[in-house]
Amino acid sequence: MYMPQSLVHADSRVLQEAQVNFGSLIDLYLKKFDRVQTMRAYRSDLIDFFTTDDVTLDIVRQVSFVHVNQYIASLQNDGYKASTLKRRVAALRGFFDWLVALGVLEQNPAHRQLIRRIRGSSQKDRGVLFLSAEQAERLLDASQNAGKASVRNYSLLKVLLYCVLRRSEAASMDVNHIRPLGHYWVLDLPSTKGGADQYVKIPAHVVEQIEVMKAHYGFSDGPLWRSLSNNRKNQRLSPHSIYRIVKQAAIAAGLDNEIGAHTLRHTGCTLALEAGATLQQVQTHARHKNIETTMIYIHQRDKLRDSAADFIHLKG
After folding, report:
1. Domain 133-308, what fold?
2. Average pLDDT of the chain?
3. 5-118 with 133-308: one CATH topology?
4. Domains of the chain: which residue ranges?
5. What b/e sequence results for 206-241 when a residue is b if at least 16 CB atoms lie within 10 Å of its CB, and e otherwise?
6. What is the DSSP string of 283-294?
7. For 86-95, what is each residue's pLDDT tens digit?
8. Are 139 and 250 in contact (CB under 8 A)?
9. What sign does the CA torsion over 120, 123, 127, 128 have?
10. Which of 65, 90, 141, 187 makes an SS bond possible with 114, Cβ 3.0 to 4.6 Å?
């Protein structure tokens, strides 16, 4: 598409003026996102590529697809996983797409047709770690052996399992996010990976457990998951703290030490499918944008249930 040079220069001047008022182009670009986790990750990725957070128009205009390919090659040589490489390339591609849309660049140096392909296993062929119903029950039991944190940890793990939350979603929960809707209870999710202002059903028995926890620790508003340590008492738990709570409970239950908060999300989805829930029901509950993401659980179940390994019989 032809764009008159006068418009290109006008956009450049606007961007330069905005940069004076708001700082680095990275900071300007990140204003289009509303999730703190996305902003933090993309900011780190862009700074890693440019080796500075003070990115200007002069700097970005010097970048070519050769530089992007050299960057990818250096990451591969350093042993980074394909998932990390893809995220960093996505951050670069989105940033340069934004500059192209503003008219200050003619083409995206991270365009798919210009950069080297990042090979990795297909998502549907990559196994997801989940627990059986018996293992999930052991995990819940183990969470109740954490001293003064037992009631909190047990309540937290139940919410993660039954509401299939991401740990960032759990960390942002407030007491008033749980509300009745008709005959049911729902959990409002103000900011999630799939967009803002979503909600998910929360079973009544989980709500009852949360009420037990609130009464036990004596609070009725504010953050739902709170620190119990002396120096951070009643402050909101971070996503990393939630990950650590799940991991410690898994170790106490004698389970795989790779288990984290996301394992409980996988577990909730898998157990629902095993009990007869439809793909569409699980997709809605887990807030998967694409049905293909939900299909991963079906694919893995069928791969294990109907395996050729079961037809191999040897003596001894």
Report:
1. hpI Integrase; Chain A (1.10.443)
2. 85
3. no
4. 5-118, 133-308
5. bbebbeebbeeeeeeeebbbbbbeeeeeeebbebeb
6. HHHHT-SSHHHH
7. 889 999 999 9
8. yes
9. positive
10. 65
